[in-house]
Amino acid sequence: MREAAEELGLDVSIDGLVATVHFGGSEQYYFLARSVGGTFGTGGGPEMGSPADSDSGSYRAVWLATDSLLSNDLRPRSLAQRLRRSAELTSWRALLIEPLVIHEQPLPPASSTMSRH
Question: Which domain of life is it from (predicted)?
Answer without folding.
Answer: Bacteria
